[in-house]
Structures are given as structure tokens and as C-alpha cells.
Amino acid sequence: MNRQTQKRLLIQAGLLLDNCQGCPKNNGNRRPPDSVCAGCGNYKKMREIGHLLEGEEPMLNMSVDEYKDYKAQGLTDKQIAEKHGAHLWDVQNWKKRNRVRASDLTSPDVQNKKPETIAYLLVDIIRRQIDNRMQAGIKTYGQTLDDCPDDAFDWQQMQIEELLDGLQYALKENKRLRAQAEDLQKKNEKMVTAIKELIGRYS
Fold first, then answer.
1. pLDDT at residue 55, rounded to an integer
2. Across 19-23, 80-84, 102-106, 199-203, which has the greatest mean pLDDT?
3. 138 C-beta neighbours (distance < 10 Å), count
4. 95 and 129: one domain?
5. 145 and 166 together in one domain
6. Which of 86, 100, 144, 170 has the smallest number of CB atoms closer than 10 Å to its CB?
7. Would the pLDDT of 109 be above 50?
8. Whole domain around residue 23: which residue ranges?
9. In Å, how far are 15, 38, 176, 178 from 21, measured between CA atoms?
10. Average pLDDT over all residues of the chain
11. In angstroms, rounded to a whole number, what is the distance separating the alpha carbons of residues 110 and 106?
């Protein structure tokens, strides 16, 4: 785990601890947290952050076939996590360990079917891109966007930064394509000149 990820997790843990300040159970009770805070979503997230900081991976007792059956029933990953008394992050990390991707949950007939419309192709591209971004986010931050506390970041500022980056990427790609087009134009002009010279020799 890099320092930036560790810092983000510590900040999130601090925000979660702030939420505990107003809890009625936080009255100097010396009983183990597992018995006092059992069932508290805030405490559960803190335990998950602790696992991440210690380099541990919460385990989820579920087979790949069982997961596929859940998805065939229309359950979301969050609903599957709740069925196992786990958190969404546990399911996402389990998918990563077991190399389960969205394409694995599609029947062979659908997988082999060629896109018949532009809309079908576009939806498939977007789905795969979102799946890839989600896996990259889990690898970098150890959690999904849903797991991240609302006050962990300035989301509006992050959106602005991402949009500005996107504009720079678009400009860079535009510049590359223009250079490529100019190079092809020069090659085309040379080829036309060569053809004309060749025709002139034999005319």
C-alpha cells in the first residue's frame, strides 16, 4: 500500500471516529467494541479500514457458482454482501481474487452474439469501461466509491480536476490525429507525384 492510499484511509477513519462522538453507546463503556458496536455500519467500516491498513483481506465464504446464481436471480453485489453479513467491499475484493468479471456472468449465446445496433455496442463499451474503472479504484483505494464517506473529499473540486484532465487528454489526442493526418497527406501527395511521373514516362 502506498503512502497516499494509507493517508486517505487514515482520514476516512478519523471522520468515522468523529461520527462516534455523538453515539449514546460512547459513554466510557469498557466492554469490547465487538459486543458494544455489533451491527453498527460505522464500526464495520472502521474494521474494514483496519484490515486494509494491516494488509489483511476480509474473507467471504462463497463459491463462484454461488455468486453466479445470485446474479442470475438479479441480486446486486450489495445485496449479496448483506446475505453473507459482509460489506460491498468484501464482494468486490472477492471478485478480484477470483477473477470474476461481468463477461463471465453472461451466457455463451449472448457473448457470441455480434452487436446488431450502435446503441448495443455503446452500452457494452460503457459497461466494460465502468467495470474496469471500478476494479482500478478498488486496487488503488481499497474500496468502492459507495464505501467512501461523503465527507472524505471535496467531490466538486475532484470533478473539476477530472474534467480539466479530460480536456487536456482530448487536446493531446486531437494534436496526435492532426499530425497523423498531415503525415498521411504528405505521403499521399508524394505517391500522386510518383504516379504522374511514371505515367509521363510511358505516355
1. 64
2. 80-84
3. 18
4. yes
5. no
6. 170
7. no
8. 1-56
9. 10, 17, 54, 58
10. 77
11. 6
**Nearest by Cα to 54 from 16, 97, 85, 10:** 10
The verdict on 71 and 128 lying in the same domain is yes
Strand (E) or helix (H) holding 162:
helix 155-202
What average pLDDT does range 129-140 have in this prediction? 80
Mean pLDDT of 115-127: 78
Same domain flag for 141 and 166: no
Tell me if the pTM is above 0.85. no
Whether 29 has a pLDDT exceeding 90, the answer reads: no
State the Cα–Cα distance between residues 194 and 134, nearest whole angstrom. Answer: 53
pLDDT higher at 154 or 92: 154
Sequence-distant (≥ 6) Cβ neighbours of residue 175 within 8 angstroms? none
Phi-psi region for residue 99, left (φ > 0), alpha (ψ -120 to 50) or beta? left
On whether the CB atoms of residues 90 and 57 are closer than 8 A, the answer is no
117 and 195 co-located in one domain = no
Judge if 94 and 22 occupy the same domain.
no
- Give the residue from 3, 5, 2, 1 showing the smallest Cα distance to 148: 5
- Say if residues 91 and 60 touch (Cβ distance below 8 Å): yes
DSSP label at residue 115: P
Residue 167 has pLDDT above 80, yes or no: yes
Look up residue 138 and give its three cell numbers.
Answer: 478498488
